[in-house]
Structure prediction request, 696 residues.
Amino acid sequence: MFSYIVRRLVAAVFLILAVSLITFMIFFLVPRLAGASADDLAVRYVGKTAGAEQIHQQAVKMGFTDPLYVQYGHFLKGLVVGADYDTGVGIDHCSAPCLGYSYQSQTPVLPELLDRLPVTLSLALGAGVIWLVSGVTVGVISALRRGTVFDRSAMTVALAGVSLPIFFTASLSLVLFSYTLHIFPAGGSYTPITENPAQWAYDLTLPWVTLSFLFAAGYARLTRAGMLETMGEDYVRTARAKGLPERTVVTKHALRSTLTPVLTIFGLDLGVLLGGAVLTETAFSLPGLGSYAIQAIDRNDLPKLLGVTMLIAIFVILANLVVDVLYAVVDPRVRLG
Amino acid sequence: MTEILGESTGRVEQDHRRARGPFLEVKDLKIHFPTDDGLVKSVDGLNFTLERGKTLGIVGESGSGKSVSSLGIMGLNGTNARTSGEIWLDGDELVGSSADFVRQLRGRKMAMIFQDPLSSMHPYYKVGAQIVEAYRLYNNVSKKQARQHAIDLLGRVGIPEPASRVDAYPHQFSGGMRQRAMIAMALACDPELLIADEPTTALDVTVQAEILDLIRDLQREFGSAVIMITHDLGVIAELADDVLVMYAGKAVEHASAQDIFKRPEHPYTWGLLSSMPRMDRARQERLIPVTGTPPSLIHLPPGCSFNPRCPYCPLTDGRSLTEVPELLQTRPGEAHFVACHLPTSRRKQIWSEEVEPKL
Prediction:
């Protein structure tokens, strides 16, 4: 197990490098292929009144005139030892690991990302717990009471849940619970958990519920289908034949097998969300990684976008690793190697 | 005071029945399943009794109702099944009892060995843990004691190095080992009735014999009643005291094992015997199968369910096509029952002149 994890981690490093290379290419090579010169890339970093000479100087300063592999080399070097960026009014140091430097806001990218990470972490983990618990609970009850009113209505709601886009449910919940009923705070409210845990949870309730509604719906359907299949398994019949009470048969024997695929998907969903729940953060104006990425796109701030992409890649890869290891822990037939 | 009196009178009555009545008695058992295509009559009027220490073999093709009957005794047919009739187990009637009452008899009073031990054991739990779970349900012992009991049981059913195998998972066992572990699990609480549903079907022949020996030895040791469900007459010959031949949800012949092999009277039993390979006779050209296929349990043929496949159907003057034969005693004083319209004398004649010589 240990050597497996080490090997996977080493592979993860190479995978992240590959992701960085591809992202780098998309941001810096594709414009060139599309016919943009180094000077075109530099235009947005100088004032509107700048002449061609000034623009070219800026392009040289930012390294856009260097061959692409040199630029990528600088980026990698920055990751390992840090880098210095000439802002025009002085030298800004970006300490290792330097994930890039935004000339627009004149800040290194990584500290900004780390600054916003707690918001996204709070949103994703909180919603994750809610949708996992509620989705699985509803799915199990639906499966055990197949065809009843509960099952039918739960599955109808679930269908609505997976079909409704989050910007719709988010707006609806804001209008209803915040602006009309005044039960929950308006969008943009966020209190760090370190300051006031109760306020933190209160502020995040609407985003959590909205985000988890979407996922809980899918999880309820997945759990229901898995549970229906598992309840027909021979080993569930064996558990009953032993004389176990139905509650034990369901929770200990049937649910255990049903949860394996659910947990797998949970890990992957969570990994993606940790890189920023773009729509939810935007709808509720939460200062997380998702809204950060949207701002970066709006302003064409390539270094920031590259940084966010790298972070998402790291989360997804780590989530995959955790899921694979967990799978082996849950199912003894799975061998890691 | 009255409460105590009432309770003790009840117990006396129950003890009386326990002492007098058979250990297991099934009366007119019917198990039907409503489906979209119609009512499936999996078991349709089954009667038999079984005493402690005895083995009843139930034979028949797939879909004849063997497994459904035994699952019915265990109360494991699910909520979709419509069960009627009576099942008396050691003084308790099970069909009319609450699900929870029957549940508490499972494992302790009656236990079942299933056909496919790989799919019948939970893949995520260790073999030992699955036995411990069954044992601790009815025995208030520590985990350590229960584990020791599991090791003892595994040793008893012939698993080598039980102390280390107790921590293995089902997929780490071979087929035969898994079936032994399954038997150990069923025996965890010393059940008085053991139902084995095709326990050897998934195993190779050498292992089959070992498992059958094991069941026989354990039965001698514990004095339990055994129901052996199989489509293999060889297994019946090995183990059974009495045999129930089932066809399309009904018993067509019920007799001692001796009679079933030496003096069978139902054409379907003849068919089963003719299709069984035998080493003790001269090898003939080929085995004679029972022609045709088992009938649909929703639309049974009118009259005798076996009539479309029965070569002797024309000899009954059409009665087989219209009238359902009853399971009747062949001769007064003999525990040999057959459901066939052919006259007893004619059946004896056909068996000794036509069927037996070809076996």
Summary: The interface with chain B takes residues 233-235, 237-246, 253, 256-257, 330-333 of chain A (CB under 8 Å). Residues 2-106 of chain A form one domain. The radius of gyration of chain A is 25 Å.
